[in-house]
Amino acid sequence: MNKIVTSKEEILESSRELIRQQGWSAVNIRAVAVACGVSVGAIYNYFDSKAALVGATVESVWCEIFHRPRDESVFQDTQACITWMYGRLEYGSKQYPGFFTLHSLGFMQEEKPDGKRRMQQTWQHILEALCFVLKRDHKIRPDAFTGQFTAEKFAGVLFSLMLSALLRQDYDPSAVLEIVRRTLY
């Protein structure tokens, strides 16, 4: 072991790299310690269990996939935002093969409440971002949303379509963009 200490971010970065190279099964305390060049105890200074390490790794993968774009204009236009999101889904699928399906199915099990909570927080954040964009988009006609058909409900529909695209591994947003055009403009 070369180092005595490391950082939480370095641990998470090494965990993400292990996933890229070897898949989810490679992430464990010992393998991450080796990848970081530290002792197992150094990892336990930051994560009290493998479940905590995996949960934090999942969160860091989501953050990498959906990091804020340099061009904030993406959040001014619904179509641009959807196109960006589908591009990020494709990026995530290529960088972390199986991530979307493996971790979401694994964390839906009862024994993984922290991972499930982190996944749901990320999904809620994505839904809130969609609502934010829908409410800011000046191209949406003023009567598009009503008391029954709200921006929040439409964001839920859009998000469901994105999750469906993940399962199909279909990262072409054209069908969703057509729904947006026909419904809102």
Describe this structure in words.
This protein is mainly alpha-helical and 185 residues long. It folds into two domains: 8-58, Arc Repressor Mutant, subunit A (Orthogonal Bundle); 66-184, no CATH class. Helices cover 67% and strands 0% of the residues. It is elongated and about 60 Å long. The mean pLDDT is 87.
Please specify the SSE layout and strand pairing.
Layout: H1 8-22, H2 29-36, H3 40-44, H4 50-65, H5 78-95, H6 99-107, H7 113-136, H8 151-168, H9 174-184
Helix pairs in contact: 1-2, 1-4, 4-5, 4-7, 5-9, 7-8
Quick summary of this structure?
Helix content is 67%, strand content 0%. By secondary structure, it is mainly α.
Termini gap = 60 Å
Strand portion? under 5%
| Category from helices, strands and their pairing | mainly alpha
Helical proportion, percent range:
55-70%
User: Roughly what is the average pLDDT, rounded to an integer?
Assistant: 87
Number of helices: 9
Roughly how many Å is the radius of gyration? 19 Å
- State the low-pLDDT regions, or none: none
- How many domain modules? 2
Largest beta-sheet characterization: none
Q: How many E strands?
A: 0
- Taken in chain order, the helices and strands follow as HHHHHHHHH
Indicate the overall shape.
Answer: elongated
Q: What are the key terms here?
A:
185 residues, Arc Repressor Mutant, subunit A, 67% helix
